[in-house]
Amino acid sequence: MASHFRNAVHSNRHVLLATGAAVTAAAVPMTVASMSELTLFPPSYPWRHRGFFSSFDHGALRRGFQVYREVCATCHSLEFVRWRELAGVTHTKEEVAALAKEVEIVDGPDKDGQMFERPSKSYDQLPSPYENDQQGAAANNGALPPDLSVMVGARHEGHDYVFALLTGYMEKPAGKEMMESLNYNPYFPGGGIAMPPPLQDDGIEYPDGTPATISQQARDVVQFLHWSAEPESEERKKTAMLFMFGTVCFILGSGYHKRWKWSSLKTRKIDYLKV
């Protein structure tokens, strides 16, 4: 049986080779086409605040909020962040109250059943640029800008992804098919993104004199968006350190108690006397 099979394969080897070559040739265009749709993974950047014993750079958080407010807030919302949560993080309580009063929000109804406008207060959410999702989509050619509250936490390695996305805009490579209204960014799935490059060198002016380069603005806003996604991050690290310190003390105390409790039994000597 085996000898007949080997003879059949040997006699038809030319047919088998031709068939294999045809299958390979047909698979190559499919492989090339699928590879053209692959997304470029962002490089890994050093972020000081991600260390176990590290905290946020609150100067960067303040600058990042400025970038969000002057650039990102024209299209994106932070619906899970309230003004009062910024106190002690990016601004003082007085500064937060002053910033909130600059914004008019719709409230109500009043005793007459009418909606009215009033200055925002510290317990209000940061304002959204659009009244509803339909308005936001209509203003952006059908693409609704996502909320940024948990953007860093919602993406794998979100720090690196958002930074690479903000700084990765470039000219479309030759042969790349894409809608005319889209912008090319290799870090965005598919390469075509509706959002135009949001950051420009010296697009804003930092009060502390920090040069407002594109990379600096991206770095600052990424740290601010990490804080908005995990505002309890620093408190969680403090709690973890206290827990670890308590665990170490408990282990040392338990070891000392065990040695003291059993020392009299482990060191005693038993002698047997003949009667």
Task: Describe the structure concisely.
This protein is mainly alpha-helical and 275 residues long.
General shape: elongated
Structural category: mainly alpha
* Beta-strand share of residues: under 5%
Strand order of the largest sheet: 1-2
Q: Helix and strand string, N-terminal first? A: HHHHEEHHHEEHH
Oligomer: single chain
User: Unreliable stretches, pLDDT < 50, 5 or more residues?
Assistant: 13-36
* N→C terminal distance: 88 Å
Q: Mean pLDDT, rounded to whole units?
A: 86
Total strands: the figure is 4
The percent range for helix content is 40-55%
Number of helices: 9
Radius of gyration: 31 Å
The main pleated sheet reads as: 2 strands, antiparallel
Give a structural overview.
- There is one protein chain.
- The strands form two sheets. A two-stranded antiparallel ribbon has the order 1-2. A two-stranded antiparallel sheet has the order 3-4.
- The longest helix is centred in the C-terminal third of the chain and has 34 residues, at 233-266.
- Helix 3 (58-70) packs across helix 8 (214-229) and helix 7 (158-167) runs antiparallel to helix 8.
- The model is unreliable at 13-36 (pLDDT under 50).
- Strand 1 and strand 2 form a beta hairpin.
- The chain has nine helices and four strands, in the order H-H-H-H-E-E-H-H-H-E-E-H-H.
- 45% of the residues lie in helices and 4% in strands.
- The protein starts with a helix and ends in a 9-residue tail after the last helix.
- It is mostly helical and 275 residues long.
